[in-house]
Design goal:
Blueprint lengths: L8 E4 L5 H13 L3 E4 L11 H6 L7 E4 L2 E4 L1 H12 L3 H5 L4 H31 L7 H18 L12 H13 L11 H11 L2 H26 L1
Parallel strand pairs: 1-2
Antiparallel strand pairs: 1-3, 3-4
Helix pairs in contact: 1-3, 1-7, 1-9, 5-6, 5-7, 6-8
This protein binds glutathione (GSH).
Protein name: Jg10509 protein
GO biological process, one term: glutathione metabolic process
GO molecular function, one term: glutathione transferase activity
């Protein structure tokens, strides 16, 4: 049931998609109810003319709130917090300039660096016959992991001592990236501890962990198929 007086929210998503999971986790934390729509990625439905009217980028997640449509998980999360966050907005996306800049630093890093490095392996594996990551792919992911380790800097969470939307974004993407390169506990002890802390949260257990397991299964199946 949608919260009383609120329009129904529609989320275009896929359970194995890290940015979709980040938005779903936030929805769960805020007590929002989404009507889910799942374009068939294998059939390239997200690249159809019809879907591109909703999101010209042809990607998921996309949120529809009544007559308003927004794509890009970070923009969606900020919108949901602005509109429906109530007291949780300040916790999950603090307004204090330095704290907010730390959260933004992580969000931009995820959007501009970390996620594209995951996608550089995933898309060619699913659609273009790639049978495993190249050494360059692994080097790129390794470099991104070392940035995450440095960002953690001894804090409990990625942008400070409290969970924020930066943890939802990076936590879901690294959970999936581990299908390509596991976090090495010796090199990235802070990251390993942080990720397992997140994965023990109920909302991660319900949404992220099965999503990451599905992503891992699909990716490894593609590699097997592409090797033959
Ligand atoms: N920066 C975007 C990334 C969205 C994205 O690339 N989503 C993937 C699914 S995880 C997708 O739609 N891929 C299909 C494609 O690019 O063809 C976000 O955070 O929403």
């Amino acid at each position: 049931m949608a919260k009383q007086g609120w329009p129904r929210l529609i989320l275009y998503k896929n359970p194995a998609s890290p940015p979709s999971c980040a938005v779903m986790i936030l929805g769960d934390i805020l007590g929002l109810t989404f009507d889910y729509k799942e374009p068939e990625l294998r059939k390239r439905e997200h690249k159809s003319a019809e879907f591109k009217k909703i999101n010209p980028m042809g990607t998921i997640p996309v949120l529809q709130d009544d007559d308003f449509i927004v794509s890009e998980s970070h923009a969606i999360m900020k919108y949901l917090l602005n509109k429906y966050g109530g007291a949780l907005q300040e916790k999950l996306y603090p307004s204090e300039p330095r704290q907010q800049a730390k959260v933004d630093q992580c969000l931009f890093f995820e959007a501009g660096v970390l996620f594209p490095r995951l996608k550089a392996v995933a898309l060619p594996s699913f659609f273009h016959g790639l049978a495993g990551p190249t050494s360059q792919h692994l080097e790129d992911i390794e470099e991104a992991y070392s940035v995450v380790e440095a960002y953690l800097n001894g804090d409990r969470y990625i942008a400070g001592d409290r969970i924020t939307i930066a943890d939802l974004s990076l936590g879901t993407t690294i959970s999936a990236a581990e299908a390509i390169l596991e976090l090495d506990k010796k090199k990235y002890p802070l990251s390993v501890a942080w990720l397992s802390r997140l994965q023990e949260e109920d909302c991660f257990k319900e949404i992220n962990n099965p999503g990451a397991a599905l992503f891992t299964k699909l990716l490894h199946m593609s590699w097997q198929k592409n090797k033959n």
